[in-house]
Amino acid sequence: EAGASYVVAGRHMNDRHKIFVSYHHALDESYKKIFELRFGNAFGAIVPGSVQVGDIDPNLPTETIRQKIRDEYLRDTSVTVVLIGAQTWQRKHIDWEIGSSIRQTEYNPRSGLLGIVLPTYPRTDPTKYNQHTIPPRLYDNIKCEFATIYNWSDDPTTVQGWIHD
Fold first, then answer.
1. Domain named Thoeris protein ThsB TIR-like: which ranges (predicted)?
2. Of the four listed, 8, 25, 110, 130, which is most buried by Cβ atoms within 10 Å?
3. pTM of the model
């Protein structure tokens, strides 16, 4: 199964963002749909843009894979949102998408990065997460303060604020 993603064209004040949503296709599709329904109108049109199994030869060099994802799937995006469910951290496609989105290329500048912890994420304390059960590349970027992480919110104004931080 691939990590699937969607690009959301967004407006907030006078800024314009294209948001790439990375998620576990098999397990978190319902939250991707909720994200589209709740926040699609707040940001604008939603355009599919996912990396599927078989789209990219996994035997290619890592840099080639990242370049292809950045230039072919993430083109013109400015923020990557990672929906973090129970097994998101295990998906190599999500790791590729995160790595590609924070990479500066000839055609695309580096994107902002944030994680949204879904209600399905296994934990007893909603103020904490286990660094070993979120995507490793996302965790590394949270640690160095490039990325941020939030709990799921149903409020479009709150989510817009996260994206524009």
1. 20-119
2. 8
3. 0.83
Q: What CA–CA distance (Å, rounded) separates 1 from 25?
A: 7
Residue 133 burial (10 A CB sphere; 0-12, 13-18, 19+): middle
Distance CA 121, CA 162 (A): 20
Contact 44, 10 (CB under 8 A): yes
Distance, CA of 82 to CA of 59 (rounded, Å): 25
Amino acid identity at 20: F
Per-residue pLDDT of the chain (165 residues; tens, 9 = 90+): 445 444 554 444 445 577 888 988 889 989 988 887 777 665 544 445 667 667 888 889 988 888 888 888 787 778 889 999 999 999 888 998 999 889 887 777 888 999 999 999 999 898 899 999 999 999 999 999 999 999 999 888 898 888 887
Handedness of CA 57, 61, 63, 67 (dihedral sign): negative
Question: What is the gyration radius of the CA atoms in the chain, in angstroms?
Answer: 15
